[in-house]
Amino acid sequence: MKKKTGGLEVLLLTSRDTGRWVIPKGWPMDGRTAYEVAAREAYEEAGVRGTVENEILGTYSYPKVLRNGLSVTCKVQVYALEVATIAKNFKEKGERKTEWISCDEAATRVHEPELREIFLLFKRRMAEQLAARMPKQIPAE
Fold this sequence. Notes:
GO terms for molecular function: metal ion binding; pyrophosphatase activity. The protein is 29% helix and 31% strand. By secondary structure, it is of the alpha+beta class. It has one domain: Nucleoside Triphosphate Pyrophosphohydrolase (Alpha-Beta Complex).
């Protein structure tokens, strides 16, 4: 996520094989927590670094076709990462398109219904957090 003047934006990127819009994701890694893997994949796939939450934002499933042609259902744990820096060079630069967009737009671009719901839930959560930080307005008399 990136807080842009005028609103919250999330980063989508394209899949290397199908070109559909996705979020960074990867396989579990020994010795690393799931949220650490999420942060690492975000850097490798999109060049972003920042503060990752250690609580799951949501989960979704999607079918993945492996190199041997076998199709497996993958379950993805989604973690929010507030972006602090964007690298000019990173592992998968040039292999994917990236775009910062609103949560509503992200929900229309992804194919997985559960991921759509995660974007909309995230938008509501961030709006609630922002409202909680705003000073209370005193009505004018």
